[in-house]
User: Which sequence fits this backbone?
């Protein structure tokens, strides 16, 4: 109840209506709104990528022959990319932890490193695509390359989305720290959850497409 | 003694004076707040167009969706003219252009376009946005005592993804190749090789899926997090439960269609072969694609969405009907707990029945048997809800107002729609009925006189909440009775046609086939006349609606009389004004003390106790005996 009251006071003189449990967790559910929201969004993302993985399985089991990833794709850059993404998952947690400790400077450094990791991943991915194109491997070549480009492309869009959010929090978005540090820290936690998920999708994509 | 008495009188006077002062104070504060609010008046664009207020967004959704419904219905009128009198020239056909209807005679290609767009518009642009976007958005925060949705900006983004999605789809009407024409199901390989309208359809769909994703996250978080104090899950109005399950279905069932849409876009734009088998011959030529794809993959992904989608269409309708029945029978819903359990179970089950749409694809008897079994099981929760609503009528003193008439009509109409679905769920019977007019009759009974009637019930019921005015009862009844008769005249003959083997999607309604000719000629003109009658029946509604909406906008409203005209117990009526406070819904956040349907509580002063009233107010007046049924009901 008190969160209602506090937010109602904070609301005075603002255009925006104060939404309860925007920052502080609701006692009986134990989460704040955005945290529940991002988990639900990730559940929906699981269904999106789940449908694509199912399609991959269906196409592969129905095909008379299926190219083996490690012979046709470029495993080395993809392996490096796996480690880049895992590193970025660590740095995003460090960013959040430092913000929790009240250290904006370190927090921003780690957000910056995460953003750079995302950028590095995309550059390596672009290099890998260009290698495929050089070998005349296009989405239309066969369904293996079709699903490879579709799934890694969609994953790449998710990485790009995360990068845009990190860039925002590194620049304009960090203004919130001055007025509402707790809310800003929450925002990093939420984008961190999303970033872990994007990482996890890659952890599944890598063996499925490149190794099996 | 006398002194004591004097003191007491004096005290009473003091209390009275204090009470008066408090009242004065409250008035002053209210006045102050109002002035404060007026100072914070937002600019027009932010207030009405890019609003973050759930009530405004709900109205935007509602108005847009009603326009789309009318458009989708108009397309069907053109199709029905062609079906009723195949090959005749109609001057009204010229509206869709000489290209599609030379000399007023509809071309077969144009018929296919109208069919695909009718289905898509009605489902994705009409009913879902109306049921969830409009009713859900407006009512859920009010019913759970929340100041707004959990993410107001996301809510706005959701509406502004829906609008471009719809516009992208509709813009293909003006494209020379026309709109999508592969049915609302967009089965490949046909849709893979169709004209560019299909690409518009897919792009529009991606927007619509994004919109419903944002909306569903918002709804679930709002319902779980922003409940007022004391609003436990079992004190939710049934409508809120229905919206919660609906949101979970939208959240989890739509992404596979998004995946499918992406794959089909890749097929069409990057020339992959996900849905194209090897050696496909189109117009006498082998298609030069890599092949190896599987058209059934699309069907699986599509129906994995589209079956839960059916429940997205029906659950909010059940929620609306439940609210109106409880209110107008002046009794608690019978079996509220089992109804809640039933819709949750229904939500889970709806994810494991999708392949009953695919019995004829040759997927094997074992899989068919599995999906046949799950389909029979999923009919049980629907029957529980419907039975509970029927039993709720028992022993009530029913008020037959317009919302109640529509809600009552929902019961048998949805009953017919549901029960005619059983033969379709049985693989053997489906062999005969698949892709006939029987199927069309079945799902239209669920969605048209079912869901759409529930939507009308909701519009008549909550109109005073939104505008402070009531819709005219007489014209509402005219609207109801003509609609009820005409809508049955359209859809009931479809069962007969289907049983006689008339295939759906036929440009001439089946007269070219010997087995279908006689029944088609006997029934099709009658059905088309009924469709025109149904269109005419909407005229009193439209006039009634716009007359009162405009009158309300001009300030002709009676907010005090219409604050709670139905004497409803739920928070959206009982705890706030009509229309609710623009800024945060409630003057003070209500605390909830009781369940949603405390109607005719034995011993209470009036026959309704609002959810946020702690006590049963004044002692009973007149000592009237309550019906035994109502008493027994409360003890169950």
Assistant:
């Amino acid at each position: 109840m008190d969160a209602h009251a506090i937010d109602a006071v904070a609301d005075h003189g603002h255009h925006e209506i104060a939404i309860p449990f925007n920052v502080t967790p609701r006692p009986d559910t134990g989460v704040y709104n955005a945290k529940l929201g991002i988990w639900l969004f990730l559940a929906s993302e699981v269904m999106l990528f789940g449908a694509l993985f199912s399609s991959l399985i269906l196409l592969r089991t129905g095909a008379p022959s299926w190219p083996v990833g490690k012979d046709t794709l470029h495993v080395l850059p993809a392996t490096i990319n796996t480690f880049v993404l895992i590193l970025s998952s660590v740095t995003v947690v460090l960013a959040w932890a430092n913000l929790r400790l009240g250290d904006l400077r370190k927090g921003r450094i780690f957000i910056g490193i995460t953003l750079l990791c995302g950028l590095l991943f995309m550059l390596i991915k672009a290099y890998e695509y260009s290698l495929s194109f050089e070998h005349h491997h296009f989405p239309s070549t066969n369904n293996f390359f079709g699903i490879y480009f579709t799934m890694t492309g969609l994953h790449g869009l998710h990485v790009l989305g995360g990068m845009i959010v990190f860039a925002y929090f590194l620049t304009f978005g960090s203004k919130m720290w001055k007025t509402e540090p707790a809310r800003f820290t929450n925002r990093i936690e939420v984008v961190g959850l999303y970033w872990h998920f994007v990482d996890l999708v890659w952890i599944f994509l890598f063996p499925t497409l490149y190794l099996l | 003694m006398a002194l004591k008495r004097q003191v007491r009188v004096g005290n009473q006077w003091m209390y009275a004076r204090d009470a008066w002062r408090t009242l004065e104070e409250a008035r002053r504060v209210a006045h102050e707040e109002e002035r404060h609010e007026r100072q914070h008046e937002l600019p027009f664009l932010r207030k009405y167009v890019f609003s973050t207020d759930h009530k405004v967004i709900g109205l935007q959704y509602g108005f847009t969706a009603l326009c789309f419904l009318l458009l989708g219905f108009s397309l069907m009128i053109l199709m029905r003219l062609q079906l009723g009198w195949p090959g005749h020239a109609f001057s009204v056909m010229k509206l869709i252009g000489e290209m599609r209807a030379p000399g007023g005679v509809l071309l077969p290609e144009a018929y296919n376009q109208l069919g695909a767009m009718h289905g898509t518009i009605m489902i994705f642009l009409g009913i879902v946005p109306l049921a969830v976007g409009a009713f859900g958005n407006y009512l859920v925060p009010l019913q759970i005592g929340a100041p707004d949705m959990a993410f107001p900006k996301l809510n706005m983004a959701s509406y502004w993804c829906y609008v471009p999605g719809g516009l992208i789809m509709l813009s293909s009407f003006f494209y020379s190749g026309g709109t999508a024409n592969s049915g609302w199901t967009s089965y490949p390989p046909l849709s893979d090789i169709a004209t560019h309208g299909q690409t518009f359809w897919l792009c529009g769909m991606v927007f619509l899926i994004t919109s419903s994703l944002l909306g569903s996250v918002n709804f679930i978080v709002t319902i779980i997090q922003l409940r007022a104090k004391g609003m436990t899950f079992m004190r939710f109005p049934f409508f809120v439960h229905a919206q919660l399950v609906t949101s979970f279905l939208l959240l989890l069932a739509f992404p596979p269609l998004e995946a499918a849409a992406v794959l089909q876009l890749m097929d069409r734009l990057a020339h992959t072969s996900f849905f194209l088998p090897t050696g496909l011959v189109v117009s006498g030529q082998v298609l030069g694609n890599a092949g190896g794809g599987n058209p059934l993959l699309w069907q699986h992904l599509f129906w994995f969405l589209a079956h839960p989608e059916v429940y997205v269409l029906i659950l909010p309708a059940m929620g609306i009907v439940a609210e109106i029945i409880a209110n107008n029978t002046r009794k608690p819903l019978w079996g509220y707990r089992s109804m809640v359990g039933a819709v949750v179970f229904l939500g889970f089950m709806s994810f494991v029945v999708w392949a009953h749409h695919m019995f004829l694809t040759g997927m094997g008897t074992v899989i068919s048997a599995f999906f046949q079994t799950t389909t029979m099981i999923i009919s049980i929760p629907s029957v529980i809800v419907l039975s509970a609503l029927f039993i709720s009528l028992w022993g009530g003193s029913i008020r037959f107002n317009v919302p109640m008439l529509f809600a009552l009509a929902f019961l048998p109409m949805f009953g017919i729609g549901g029960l005619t679905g059983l033969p379709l769920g049985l693989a053997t019977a489906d062999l005969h009925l698949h892709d006939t007019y029987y199927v069309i009759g079945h799902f239209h009974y669920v969605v048209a006189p079912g869901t759409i009637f529930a939507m009308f019930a909701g519009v008549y019921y909550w109109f005073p909440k939104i505008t402070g005015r009531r819709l005219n009862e007489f014209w509402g009844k005219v609207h109801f009775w003509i609609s009820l008769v005409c809508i049955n005249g359209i859809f009931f003959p479809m069962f007969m046609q289907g049983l006689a083997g008339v295939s759906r999607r036929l440009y001439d309604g089946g007269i070219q086939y010997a087995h279908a000719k006689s029944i088609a000629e006997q029934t099709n003109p009658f059905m088309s006349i009924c469709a025109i009658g149904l269109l005419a029946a909407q005229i009193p509604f439209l006039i009634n609606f716009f007359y009162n909406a405009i009158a309300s906008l001009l300030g002709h409203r009676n907010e005090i009389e219409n604050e709670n005209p139905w004497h409803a117990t739920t928070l959206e009526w009982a705890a706030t004004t009509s229309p609710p406070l623009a800024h945060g819904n409630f003057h003070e956040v209500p605390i909830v003390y009781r369940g949603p349907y405390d109607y005719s509580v034995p011993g209470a002063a009036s026959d309704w106790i609002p959810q946020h009233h702690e006590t049963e107010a004044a002692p009973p007046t007149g000592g009237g005996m309550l019906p035994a049924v109502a008493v027994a009901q409360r003890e169950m």
